[in-house]
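Continuing from the previous page of notes. For each protein in this section, the sequence appears first, followed by its structure tokens. Read the first protein now.
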Amino acid sequence: MKEPPMSKTLFEKIAAREIKADIVYEDELVLAFRDINPQAPTHVLIVPKKPIPRIDQAATTDQNLLGHLLLKAAEVAAKVGLQASGYRLVINNGRDGGESVPHLHCHILGGRQMTWPPG
């Protein structure tokens, strides 16, 4: 018996414009948009358009995409005004890591002093 196709993740639906989002950056590989439940004055998510469930499921063939994701995260942080004051990049992995959407994504958080340890 053939398995039914996996349903799209929330982030795939945003990339396909099936769900509206406040998009701040897009290229052929990644999409960045403002988080609808911000945890800082500035909270942007940057996601690869390729659906990788989480960082521990990325393959060695994803190396260039992952590098691109991080470099673009820095560009987006500058674009939204966080370069001078600083920002935090967060990638959650699995339930205990705080992952809520099974699609690799990087949080760009800024606009306030971050504390340590997080969480």
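Done with the first. The second protein uses the same format. Note its length before scrolling.
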Amino acid sequence: MSFKRTLLAAAFTTLALNAGMAIAKVSADEAARLKGELTPFGAERAGNADGSIPEWTGGLTTPPAGYVKGGHQVDPFADEKPLYTVTAQNYKEYENLLSDGQKALFEKQPTFKLNVYPTHRTAPIPNWIAENTHTNALNAELTPDGNGVTNAYGGIPFPIPQNGQEAIWNHTLRWYGEGKDATYESATIYANGSRAVTAGHLIETYPYYYKDGDISSFNGNIIQLLLQYSLPTRRKGEVTLVRDPVNASKEPRQAWQYIPGQRRVRRAPTIAFDTPDPGSNGLTTYDQAFMFNGSPERFDWELIGKKEMLVPYNAYKFLAAHSKGTPMEDIAQANHTNTDLERWEKHRVWIVEATLREDSRHIYGKRRFYLDEDSWFALMTDMYDGRGELWRFGHSHPVALYADGNIIARALTNYDLQSGDYAMQEYDTIPYVPQATKDDNFYTPQNVRQMARR
């Protein structure tokens, strides 16, 4: 689908929604495109005209030589060199491939750069996920208010999106495995050179994507997570528990906290939306995790279209740097992350714009998300304040887990373009484990109480 066609489709959708039409499921003929010209997730299977974006041929599913299961991901592109480098001196030559946030970061931090490598469309799609996605295309629907999804399971709900709400739900319900077990460190680096570190152990499970489940056994949760902090010292032993439903119209997010000094497990309804996230020392909001998460209810969503852009991709080198001996201070450097370790590629992305509703409150007046067409991951986001001024820019560090058939994004990085501070969150300090317990009883306040007594 061309960018022009996409823009026309988005314009039609906007008119239809304004007229009160309900658009969701697609026809059998339209869904058949997912087995032909489109990938199972709705991306253009073909490459672009000049060959700089190749054809999608199934993603990266074979581990490279040297990979040991349970170890860090081996970089399959370690021998590649950058095609070119975008800097503060030449970025205007590439500005049609850059977001407003990227351009502002070049202006704010002159040492920032993008090393641009050959594009590899590595996002894998297991057959069972592809089949579920095809079924979802025929059956999935938004709730009337757009704050939930029904009749979907185990795949992208709207692989041929008709509006911005469907597109952002594709990100929220992206395929990233059945769960994870991660021990990580996060760093907030201030413009004055000081830094603050948080660390913890995070266990998550994704019931929506249980391979041995189906829509009849689905418990209704997108994600169930339990986080226990180990740093800073004042927060050691603190536990956060979250259960996030796929239908926020029917049931809102459930969250609890255990704070050692209080020795009580308390409901925590503020772990949502624009509440400052202590994991970044308040530099991000809770709904910035994964670039965006939670109910979309506070924004109006518009599907702008699709565009070729320079985005972070295949970040094997960056994510394995610490395990290979690079100190964290040399990964999360002053002013910005170590750009010699980062990898940027040209990919097609869906652009989705969120504008704060007049009847809602949020610190961001507008947000623009750049969603990978192959995986539906939000790779980048531009964030604007209530005055319409560009405020923050965020990006992820995605890699394909070739031994497990999915893609993940770690070390999410958010820059404050006004203050010069930035935060890099969830950088794994030991190898990422793409599995976690599926026991629903583990993700309960009762279990948190038991943990507190140990």
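What the second structure shows: The CA atoms of residues 109 and 335 lie 7 Å apart. Helices lie at 3-18, 28-31, 100-108, 127-139, 164-172, 316-320, 328-331, 445-453. We return to this in next week's lecture.
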